Amino acid sequence: MENVYIVGVGMTKFGRHVDKTVKQLTAWAVEDALKDAGCDRKWIQVGFFGNCTQGHFDGQHMIRGQVALLPLGLDGIPIFNIEGACASSSHAFSLAVTQLQAGAADVAIAVGAEKMFYSDKAKMFSAFESAWDIETFEDNKNYLAAMGKSIVPPEGSQSKNPYSPFMDVYAALGRGGLMERYGITQRQLAAVSSKNHGHSVHNERSQYRNAMSIEEILAAPPITYPITLPMCSPISDGAAAAILCTESALKKYGFDKNRAIKVLASVVRSASARAAEDFDKGCTHLAGKAAFEQAGISPSDVDVAEVHDATAIGELLAIEALGLCEPGMSGVDAERGDSALGGRLPVNPSGGLESKGHPIGATGIGQIFELVEQLRGNCGPRQVEGARIALQGNGGGLWRVEESTEHVGIFSRA
Fold first, then answer.
1. Which of 211, 299, 327, 364 could cross-link with 394 by S-S, CB 3.0 to 4.6 Å?
2. Is residue 357 within 8 Å of residue 117, measured between CB atoms?
3. pLDDT by residue (tens digit) across 320-348?
């Protein structure tokens, strides 16, 4: 089985692109990836396209990848349409890796694109409602509400304005999985958010680029306890693309091996029927364990990570599950700067989903874009010095008490 490399990446700025369609955002990311790789589009033999909400918003329920990619000259090749909630483009990436490892192609493209910002806010937020089992909606809601019962939300800590139902999910997981279990505080969650907003100042592709102090984040409008507005990822539009190839294709097509990034692991796992307190059977924990085994490294070898911080709670849950900190120490680590640039293990130097943005179908490859650039040493003021091993964790949807699916990728300089 051949090694697989990322030879080109492209990514739009994440934000509100009211004047652009999904097709235009896709073209932006794909053309940038082709240029970055020095790749003729005729060399690409297979494409994987991740998207979640185009059917909901635009009525394009089918052949989304063909509609977006065929006009770009990627015609005639097999194009696969992938949906995995917020992990859609990570699934596309992982399938591209598998296709190359199987010998079915030697150059592939994986793309994620999403246009989510709409003036009709009720419709906009309703896009998230099918990211869990709609037949068991009330059971899901009641089960989550029972988590962290000892943590009583203060008066006035819930927004009266519409917000994504997943903020209630994260709040429940945070109260039960972090605050009640480990004693993690709201201030420590604010430290995560402050760190990520600070990182994003140096990211020209980030939706928000304003530094915020811990005190400003704690004083911001509440969403649902313990979450305040800056602790949440925004509604975003955007696209990202990655071009991958086998080791033999590096020489065959003349790709620059000095810029190529090796894929050490790409693992996808779905949720398990587990009790809420049975963390060792968690989807992210088991996916991470498998990825470290596949890569032949341990968590202590990781130099930089991009993890799924749809809220600040999500970042701490991911760090705990992936073994990137001592058990129960993720909040303390964040408060003392261990996960900031210059710290022991910088997490989300891009600004994370909280600040860079979260166009859900594009998010996974957006994370990979950042890690490729980090490993190439191209990130300027947000560069993690000496980064050689990078980890990506990207979850999607909810099933019972955890993400319905998780992708963990591990990458290294070639």
1. 364
2. no
3. 999 999 999 999 999 999 999 999 999 99
Tokens of 120: 């009709």
- Whether 318 contacts 308, CB under 8 Å: yes
**What confidence tens digit (pLDDT) does each residue in 347-382 have?**
999 999 999 999 999 999 999 999 999 999 999 999
Whether 325 sits among the annotated catalytic residues: the reply is: no
56, 91, 199, 358: the active-site residue: 358
**C-beta of residue 328 within 8 angstroms of C-beta of residue 181:** yes
SS3 labels along the chain: CCCEEEEEEEECCCECCCCCCHHHHHHHHHHHHHHHHCCCHHHCCEEEEECCCHHHHHCCCCCHHHHHHHHHCCCCCCEEEECECECHHHHHHHHHHHHHHCCCCCEEEEEEEEECCCCCHHHHHHHHHHCCCHHHHHHHHHHHHCCCCCCCCCCCCECCCCCCHHHHHHHHHHHHHHHHHHCCCHHHHHHHHHHHHHHHCCCCCCCCCCCCCHHHHHCCCEEECCEEHHHECCCCEEEEEEEEEEHHHHHHHCCCCCCCEEEEEEEEEECCCCCCCCHHHCHHHHHHHHHHHHHCCCHHHCCEEECCCCEHHHHHHHHHHCCCCCCCCHHHHHHCCCCCCCCCCCECCCCHHHHHCCCHHHHHHHHHHHHHHHHHCCCHHHCCCCCCEEEEEEEECCECCECCEEEEEEEEEC
Q: Is 232 a catalytic residue?
A: no
Q: What is the pTM of this model?
A: 0.97
